[in-house]
Amino acid sequence: MADPKKNYQVAVIDDHTLMRNALARLVASFDGFGVLFEANHGKEMVEKMKQHLIPDLVLLDINMPEMDGYETAKWLFKHYPQVKILALSMQNDEGSIIRMLRLGAKGYVTKNVNPEELNVALNSVMKKDFYLSEAITGKVISGLHADIEKPIDPIVLNDKEREFLRYACTELTYKDIAEKMSVSPRSVDDYRNTLFEKIKVHTRMGLALYAIRNKIVEV
Questions:
Q1: Over the stretch 122-180, which tens digit does the pLDDT of each residue have?
Q2: Count of other CB atoms within 10 angstroms of residue 28
Q3: Which domains does the chain have, with CATH numbers?
Q4: Of 27, 71, 133, 199, whose CB has the highest number of CB atoms within 10 Å?
């Protein structure tokens, strides 16, 4: 049952019962976070959400029976795009990381993460819309450098859009970005939405991946 005193409600999806229970207890111990429900896999999560149990954030494993993390992330983005996803997996290869981010995950951490970093990751995803540790960022960059997808037509960006993209790759909130750019928060929303349309992505993480891949920012 959701705790009304908690600001954010989390669903923990993992097929390993001991791990899932431990994660749920840990998340519930963080200030501002409560656990709305646990599920063994994506299919069970879907059934619970159809019962109007809608979390703010899903802590999502990748390797699961019935409906794995990739399928689950895709379903969430289609049906509940407002629900944020933080991937938590034993897998740390660049292919898995980039695939989850492209499917809408706001961040990615490995299961050997310490409690303090998990707390930071949860808060960053909820308040800043993304989180990547230094180790995961290195994997992402490596994967982007090795990406052999067919080149796409160049996208023309104006100076303000490029400036916004550079700030979007930092830890700044959208409100902070507006102050840095000396524009209104509404203008920042307009830049973001225009870039979503131009670049064909749906998340701040997608913008960051585009900026890194196209060397708009150096990491």
A1: 999 999 888 877 666 655 655 554 444 444 446 888 999 999 998 888 878 889 999 99
A2: 14
A3: 8-145 (3.40.50.2300), 159-213 (1.10.10.10)
A4: 27
DSSP 109: E
Rounded to the nearest 5 percent, the helix, strand and coil shares of the chain are 50, 15, 35
Question: How many C-beta neighbours within 10 Å does residue 153 have?
Answer: 5
Predicted TM-score (pTM) of the model is 0.70
Alpha-carbon gap, residue 210 to 56, rounded angstroms:
26
Q: For 1-10, how does the pLDDT look when each residue is reduced to its tens digit (9 = 90+)?
A: 455 556 899 9
| 16: its two tokens | 């390993």
Sign of the four-CA dihedral 210, 72, 190, 150: positive
